[in-house]
Amino acid sequence: MSAIINDRPETALSTSDFYYDLPEERIAQHPVEPRDHSRLMVLHRGTHSLEHKHFYDIIDYLREGDTLVVNDSKVIPARLYGHAEGREDAKIELLLLRSHELDTWESLVKPGKRARMGMRMVFGGGILVGEVVGMVEEGNRLIRFEYDHDKYQNIYEILHIVGLMPLPPYITAQLEDNDRYQTVYAREEGSAAAPTAGLHFTPELMERIKAKGVAIVPVMLHVGLGTFRPVKVDKLQEHTMHTEFITVTKEAADIINARRAAGGRVISVGTTSCRTLESAADENGIIHPISGDTGIFIYPGYRFKAIDALITNFHLPESTLLMLVSALYDREHMLKAYHVAVEEKYRFFSFGDAMLIE
User: Fold this and answer.
1) Residue-wise pLDDT tens digits, 158-211
2) What's the CATH code of the domain at 246?
3) Which run of H or of E encompasses 159?
């Protein structure tokens, strides 16, 4: 299907209205062990109150009949280091963003000026070769990859040999276990970054949640630039989201719709699950099966149709993610909550602590 049109509510807000001061030491460099022992801030929108908990307490805020919607996309080792073909001194770095067709990927290339049409690059001593075959928006390149199809089933098999996990640039520490940048329910490979709200769940916690009568339903958004791309314009309505691929199956849509119609809440695990559901919902909040691109940009003024509550991490200043959570709970109260989180020494960003907005 074609790309979904951006849902752009009118607003007078500027990008700078979503700035907050964050000391560098509050940026988490390592994940908490066990996963569900991270902290949890619970925001009660009805009373404008908050609580300080741990993530394993999330079960106390879930009710029988609720539906927990998770993004089961799996992060691929999307960062590649190599060199121009025939020139080992001409170093190349790639970040694979999304697959356009078999073995052709939209990618960020550094240095970009080296990546001209037809330029070829070598990775892993030659087991993977890429060629620039196209230019796309904002200077990204389309790279067509070649490898021995008799030896390797697909490109993902090679990426697990030569690629590195694409940790965000604000994480400077080495990750000892790549699985800690995957959710325990990750299934379909294709993301260039983790849907990090889900990193707090353990298999044991998920079983306890199911036993309480809460359904856990997967949808899929392959995380790319759209989620993390910085807002470079002052007026929010002038920002354009990079599109990302989503899927909601008929089975998932039927479960969510039936349980919500019976009075249960839809609780999104992460902003990616939220954007997927809001893209799949009609004006009456009914979720429809979908498979295609979304460029939905949610910021204050947006009317949520699909979700009733959100589990999320603490996001970067002036980011589209902070704008999304500020649309669910107004900007002033959200920024006050972030100020409290800084004062209370919560851990921020991908490996940081969590928030429940209910």
Assistant:
1) 999 999 999 988 898 878 888 999 999 999 999 999 999 999 999 999 999 999
2) 3.40.1780.10
3) helix 155-162
